[in-house]
Specification:
The structure holds two protein chains of two kinds.
Chain A: E1 3-8, E2 20-26, E3 29-36, H1 44-48, H2 56-61, H3 68-83, H4 89-117, H5 121-142, E4 151-152, E5 155-156, H6 162-188, H7 190-196, H8 204-209, H9 215-218, H10 249-273, E6 290-298, E7 301-309, E8 315-321, H11 323-334, H12 343-349, H13 354-358
Antiparallel strand pairs in A: 1-2, 2-3, 4-5, 6-7, 7-8
Helix pairs in contact in A: 3-4, 4-5, 4-10, 4-12, 5-6, 6-10
Chain B: E1 5-8, H1 13-22, E2 26-34, E3 39-48, E4 51-60, E5 64-66, H2 76-86, E6 89-91
Classes of the chains: A alpha+beta, B alpha/beta.
């Protein structure tokens, strides 16, 4: 059969960020897909070598808006490891609370985008209405809605009062009830299932081989969540990763739906157990020469930070492997054999973040 | 500090990576660190059951490094990235973008590489 090459992206209604795919088609069926990136490469890793190590907290937050808090957290954890700084217990709990708020707003944003991709506009609007409540909490606690700049090396820059934490838990309690009716549509609606069930199936072995991380891996039955490492205060909270086994687009959606509830539960636990005390520890001087690797679970999956210091105020090297960078190869497995009409959904199910990927 | 790190040579790389594959490790990523003296450190990171294992390979930047993408296909992007941004020579990448995955035709060569400044003392014209 004659083959046709269809360019998908970099500008496409379903893509909030520029990703290009060269799709080799036989009729409506994809036989090969080759990704192309490089439209928004900013050289942020190189930029960090020219800034002071304390300023880099703000640089890495700009790698990605959606998971900005976790980027800053990962960088700070690397420096705290090199500088042998023991973060205060309260700061560890605050880090969990803000991390989970970020995970919630990221997953709700993604679920809305997915609904929009398969043409369910009212579902999209309901999800983003709920997401606004999380953004409001972020603004009330940190002064900003997306890039909240609340991390610093040695702890956090801001505190949340216990009264405010109680208010947040009350908002999340109401939100949990409201989300049940919205999520019911996602889980049971015929049209939603028709677009997601059995689409882009990735087996457990394939997910492992192609290096899938985060909800992509967990939806294929891999019990892998960096929060299990116990960083920040995760080691003190009850937590079990959400794992599904079907490996299709529906399973990836279910993982993210359940993780929204899980985040609410983790915030509830953290607010109930947060100890009193200081939110950061002061330090003097430059970090000694050293290296550190830290892995953190972002909404899209595992992020790896490598930092090398040289004893001066500048760092020698920062390397960030973001979750989308790890999940793009899975697209090359999922797309061949799929129908052209499923491409938007398939691309969205990896929750692509191109600004993260290119840095 | 980095735990579970082992120094390996370029000749040992493929055998070591193959062993990690047979033992069921997931390839996390690779990290290139330009040492500034014509050498580079390549760190390969693997994970199994949340335990990370790292291998450090120190090489001359002018040397040719074999690709591990025939063993772990997911290494394709990071190997292309190291090739473009640090100017490394990596052979046989499963999908080779030939230096144009991130960079454009008018981009600087190897923008992440450390520039070596060599100051030479010149004899003055009268001497």
């Amino acid at each position: 059969m004659k083959k046709t090459i269809i360019p998908f992206g970099p500008q496409h209604p379903v893509l909030p960020e520029p990703l290009h795919l060269k799709l080799v088609m036989e009729d409506e069926k994809i036989v090969e897909a080759i990704p192309a990136i490089g439209y928004v490469h900013r050289g942020l890793e190189k930029l960090t070598e020219t800034k002071e190590f304390t300023q880099n907290v703000f640089v890495v937050e700009r790698i990605c808006g959606i998971c900005s808090f976790m980027h800053a957290l990962s960088y700070c954890m690397c420096l705290e490891d090199i500088m042998k700084l023991e973060v205060t217990p309260r700061a560890k709990y605050l880090r969990v609370i803000w991390s989970e708020l970020h995970r919630m707003h990221s997953h709700l944003l993604w679920l809305g985008l997915l609904a929009d991709a398969f043409g369910f506009e009212s579902l999209f609007m309901q999800l983003w209405k709920e997401r606004e409540k999380v953004m409001d909490i972020m603004e009330e606690t940190a002064g900003s809605r997306v890039i909240i700049s609340s991390n610093q090396i040695g702890g956090t820059r801001r505190d949340i009062t216990n009264e405010k934490l109680n208010d947040i838990v009350k908002i999340l309690d109401t939100m949990e009830q409201d989300l049940k009716s919205v999520f019911k549509v996602f889980l049971n609606d015929y049209t939603v299932k028709h677009r997601l069930v059995g689409v882009g199936t990735l087996s457990k072995d394939e997910a492992y081989l192609y290096g899938a991380v985060g909800p992509m891996a967990r939806a294929s039955g891999i019990r892998q969540d960096m929060r299990m490492l116990g960083y920040a205060a995760y080691g003190e909270l009850n937590f079990e990763p959400v794992v599904e086994t079907d490996g299709d687009s529906y399973a990836r959606t279910v993982v993210r739906l359940k993780e929204v509830y899980q985040s609410i539960d983790l915030i509830r636990q953290a607010a109930a157990n947060i100890p009193a005390g200081a939110i950061n520890i002061p330090f003097k001087g430059n970090p000694p020469a050293g290296e550190s690797i830290v892995r953190v679970e972002q909404p899209r999956g595992e992020v790896l930070y490598y930092v090398k210091t040289n004893g001066s105020k500048n760092i020698d090297r920062l390397r960030v492997r973001t979750p989308t960078f790890a999940n793009i190869p899975t697209l090359l497995k999922m797309l061949p054999g799929s129908q052209l009409a499923d491409v938007p959904v398939l691309i969205l199910t990896i929750d692509p973040c191109i600004s993260c990927t290119e840095r | 500090m980095i735990e579970n790190i082992v120094e390996i040579s370029k000749e040992q790389l493929l055998a070591q990576v193959q062993e990690m594959f047979y033992e069921g490790y997931r390839f996390v990523t690779a990290t290139c660190v330009d040492l500034g003296d014509g050498k580079a450190d390549i760190l390969y990171h693997f994970d199994k059951d949340l335990e990370i294992r790292n291998f450090r390979l120190t090489m001359e930047k002018s040397d040719v490094l074999p690709s591990i993408s025939k063993i772990y296909f997911c290494a394709v992007l990071v190997e292309n990235e190291m090739k473009e941004l640090f100017g490394l020579k990596i052979n046989d990448i499963a999908i080779d973008y030939d230096g144009r995955m991130l960079l454009a035709d008018d981009s600087p060569d190897a923008p992440m590489a450390k520039r070596q400044i060599i100051i030479e003392k010149r004899e003055s014209a009268g001497q």
